Amino acid sequence: MSPIHNHHFRTVILDMDGVITQTASLHAEAWKEMFDTFLEKQDGEAYESLSIEQDYKLYIDGKPRFDGVRSFLESRHIVLPEGQPDDAPGKETVYGLGMQKNELFLDSLDKEGAQVYPDTLEMLKKWKEAGLKLAVISSSRNCRRIMESAGLLDMFDALVDGVLSEEKQLKGKPAPDIFLEASNMLGVDAPDAVVIEDAVAGVEAGKKGNFGLVIGVARKNEEKLLTAAGADVVIKKLTELE
C-alpha cells in the first residue's frame, strides 16, 4: 500500500519545478548560461563553467533566486556588490545576475511552455479524489504564472511562492518556512503532511519542519544526494506511490 494512504496524512505538499512541471531543466540551463557568461568575462577562456550535476545541485537548486546567486558566488570565492532589486539584467551585482537568469528562464518558458509530468498529474487526480488537500510550493516568483500556463492552478488548495515569501518574510529553503506556511494555510499540522521534493535544499527543509513523510523525487538519478539529505523515501516517478 502507498506510504501516503497507509497513514493518517491529510495533505500533500509538492514542490513545483522538477516534481510537478518539467521546468527544472529550463531553470538549470538558464542558470548555466547566465553564470558561464559571467565567469567567462571574469576569467577568459580558462574559466571553469557551472556544472549542473555538481554546482547547480549543491549551491542553487531549490533556493530563492538571489540566495542561489550568493551561494554559487561564495562557492567560487567571488565577491560582488548586492546591488538593487531594480538592477538591469546582467549588471555585475547579485540582483543583476539574478535578473539576467530570470530573463533567460522566462524566454525559454515562453518558447517551450510549462509541461506537466504525466506521473504527477495522475497522482494529483487520485489524491484529489481521495480527499487529500494539495499544496504547491516554490521559491520562484513565477510559480502562479507557471501553474496557470500548465492549467493546474485550480487543482491546488494552497500556493506558496516567492512573492508570498517576500510579503511574509519567509526564509528560503533549506529553512522549512514555505512548507510550514502551506500546511498552516490548510490547517494541517506538519506531522500530518507529506512533502515531495526533488532538490536537496527542499528535502532538508521538509526534515527540519518535522513533516510526517519527506519523499525525494530522483528523476535524474539523484538518489544518493536525496537520501543523504534525509529523504524518507526516494522514487523516480510519483506513480511509484500507488
Sequence-ordered SSE layout with sheet pairings:
Blueprint: E1 11-15, H1 24-43, H2 52-60, H3 65-75, H4 94-112, H5 118-129, E2 133-137, H6 143-150, E3 158-160, H7 162-168, H8 177-185, E4 193-197, H9 200-208, E5 213-217, H10 223-229, E6 233-235
Structure described in brief:
Keywords: Carbohydrate metabolism, Isomerase, Magnesium, Metal-binding, Phosphoprotein. The chain has 242 residues and is of the alpha/beta class.
Which tags fit this structure?
242 residues, Rossmann fold, 6-stranded parallel beta sheet, 10 helices, 11% strand, globular
What does the model show?
By secondary structure, this protein is α/β, with parallel strands linked by helices. It folds into two domains: 11-22 and 115-241, HAD superfamily/HAD-like (Rossmann fold, 3-Layer(aba) Sandwich), CATH 3.40.50; 25-112, no CATH class. Helix content is 46%, strand content 11%. It contains ten helices and six strands. It has helices at 24-43, 52-60, 65-75, 94-112, 118-129, 143-150, 162-168, 177-185, 200-208, 223-229; strands spanning 11-15, 133-137, 158-160, 193-197, 213-217, 233-235. It has a six-stranded parallel β-sheet. Helix 9 links the parallel strand 4 (193-197) and strand 5. Helix 1 packs across helix 4 (94-112), helix 2 crosses helix 3 and helix 3 packs across helix 4. The longest helix has 20 residues, at 24-43. The radius of gyration is 18 Å and the shape is globular.
